[in-house]
Amino acid sequence: MRQVPRVMAFTNDAIAAREDLGVGAAALAAGGAAVALVARVPGGNADALAALADRFVRLARAPEAQVLVTGRADIAAATGAQGVILRGGDVSVATARRITRPGGEPLLVLRSVHTLAEVEAAAQEGADAVVLGTIWPSASHPGRPGSGVELLTAATAFGVPVIAIGGVTPARAQEAVAAGAWGVAAIGALWEVPKPYLAVVEMLAAVGAKGET
Fold it and tell me: How far is residue 85's CA from residue 68's CA, in Å, rounded to a whole number?
């Protein structure tokens, strides 16, 4: 089983539908094993999610970047993705662990959380990491105030790696890691930029992961 990625590039419906999706995904995947493409289609069905995950797996294979799938451990395993990010209402961590990749390799199992109570519960479940947010105000959640880096610091007390999400930029990524985060996740800062490869390299450097394999 691979190490938890340090930089995660989440998608949304608009990004998943872009004509240049493959170009952007390949550029981000070129960041290597410390990077994960996260297949997420909030308005789509299971077939759309599986198609996106399968495409990401093919694009990520050569540079050995990782692919994570939101909510569906079965789709992650079926497409050869490295892991799943479970949300509230999804299956338990224990159930997700019974679903393995081809060859019997276990999935990375992460939890998407918003409160310290949810971080604690995820740690007790045995999650490999948590994706915690919204840390800073984000275009993905207009009107929702950021929780601040203090939440990141408090979350590290439960002994599970924490990935900061919400309004992340390279400068904020440095701040997140200084507060105890293992890594960061973003949408706009990685996908909605002129040169995604340069953006992911800058983000990797910001979290201290430049050159990791």
Answer: 7
Residue 126 inside a domain? The answer is yes
CATH code: domain of residue 177: 3.20.20.70
Q: What is the pLDDT of residues 133-161, one digit of tens each?
A: 999 987 766 656 678 899 999 999 999 99
In a domain, 117, yes or no: yes
Range of the domain at 99: 7-206
Say whether pLDDT at 213 is over 60.
Answer: no
The residue-averaged pLDDT of 189-205 equals 97
Backbone angles phi, psi at 89, to 5 degrees: 95, -15
Task: Flag whether 212 is in a domain.
Answer: no
Give the number of other Cβ atoms within 10 Å of residue 125's Cβ.
Answer: 16
3-state secondary structure of 181: coil
Residue 171 vs residues 32, 94, 174: alpha-carbon distances, Å: 21, 36, 5
Quote the distance between the C-alpha of residue 48 and its chain's center. 18
pTM confidence score: 0.94
Domain total in the chain: 1
Residues 6+ apart with CB under 8 A from 16: 40, 41, 44, 48, 52
